[in-house]
Amino acid sequence: MKDYMLKRIVELAEYIIDSKATVRAAARKFGISKSTVHKDVADRLTRISPSLAAAAKIILEENKQERHIRGGLATKHKYASLHG
To answer: Residue 58: what pLDDT?
Structure first.
């Protein structure tokens, strides 16, 4: 694996853990696709740092469980701004 990839993967995981970022937010911040975020955290990071991978996966699982709530709030906000 190339050095720039190793650096990006570790920085990505640290960003997700520190900011409790969603996959989408992390992808936007690093200028990569959501698929790459998943691949980096789920596959590549486990080979580099299993403990860091486990911590990042916990955050991503929490975000996954809460995504339906975020979607509802976004819709509520959208319609409130249209009619308010």
So the answer is: 95
